[in-house]
Amino acid sequence: MSNISKGSLVLVTGANGFIGSHVVDQFLATGYKVRGTARSEIKGGWVKQLFEKKYGPGKFELAIVPHMDQKGAFGEAMKGTAGIAHVAANLVYDAATEKLSSPAVIPEVMATVRDILESAAATPSVKRFVMTSSSTAATNPKPGVKFTIKDTTWNQEAIDAAWAPPPYNAERRWDVYGASKTQAEQELWKFTREHKDIGFVANTVLPNGNFGPFLSPEHQAGGGSTATWVSNLYKDGLTYQKDIPPQYFVDVRDNARLHVAALTDPAIQNERVFAFAEPFNWNDVLHILRKLRPNHKFSPDMENDVKDLSIVAPHARAEEILKKNFSQKGFISLEESLKANIAHLD
């Protein structure tokens, strides 16, 4: 079983993002050194300053990768690293993104995954690899429907809908996003099957909506992460959130810890780790926020109180990983995560 010892250098792509910055933070807190990528010095410079202040010099270094969709984009950045946490994504969900209306973007996403795997296979120092997948690689949210999600569950429904014949329109965006995540992760597993001698162990982490603290509200709170669903609800009331269906959440710190474990625990091999903490709907969120900030004025409850009834079979395995590697009894609760999510707001 491959092992990465503490003090080793690991690569984290997308280090300035909401999830990526927490993955960096957890690696540094656990005793690893990190090289993190960002698309420019302007986008990533604050990350270096933040982690040098928190952990001291020499623990974190910034690598600039302007265009992750170019051939060999991460090849130089991964030289000398023992492991890679591939968190960056060249397609994120945004209801206003026209690109998501057409499945033509999906092969681009798949090609980027294959390219970083090829670069990793050509880098002898790399012993382990973990990629951020998504809950939508397993299933779309299905409020009010009781069904079981297994570690073998794939979102074929999204693939079929995304690749259906035209016309291409806004209704297709969620399925195109889900299909891109599904087929990108399938591309990783296809690569490992085709290359038995790649020299590294691969795992994936499938998080649902990430809530929790912004490491730098100044640089992250206005971005497109799922944590802004909560902060925007706090500031502006229920608006676009009404169109976001009930589903599971995970605190971003737990998601990051699962990435660390998936890269460093030699017992985790060829696994899909499901970062699903607990289900929520927007009334659950509103009830907790009213409790946390009783003097703040919030939107009234939604009339439709439908719940996510899915059963996540791999949930217990993720809790086991958190307990073994971080001595946690379980996932961070929704209330604790929401409290951290709005900590920067008056």
Explain what the structure shows.
This protein is 38% helix and 15% strand. It is α/β, with parallel strands linked by helices and 346 residues long. The strands form three sheets. It has a seven-stranded parallel β-sheet, with helices on both faces. Helix 2 links the parallel strand 2 and strand 3. The chain is globular and about 55 Å long.
Give descriptors for this structure.
346 residues, alpha/beta, 3-stranded mixed β-sheet, 11 helices, 38% helix
Structural class: alpha/beta
The strand order across the widest sheet is 3-2-1-4-5-7-10
Shape by Cα distribution: globular
Question: How big a fraction of the residues is strand?
Answer: 5-15%
Question: Rounded to an integer, what's the Rg over CA atoms?
Answer: 19 Å
Number of strands: 12
DSSP helix fraction: 25-40%
State the order of secondary-structure elements, H for helix, E for strand.
EHEHEEHEEHHEEHHEHEEHEHH
Can you tell me the residue ranges where pLDDT is under 50 for at least 5 consecutive residues?
Answer: none
- Number of continuous helical runs: 11
Mean pLDDT: 95
Please give the alpha-carbon distance between the first and last residues.
49 Å
Task: Describe the largest sheet.
Answer: 7 strands, parallel
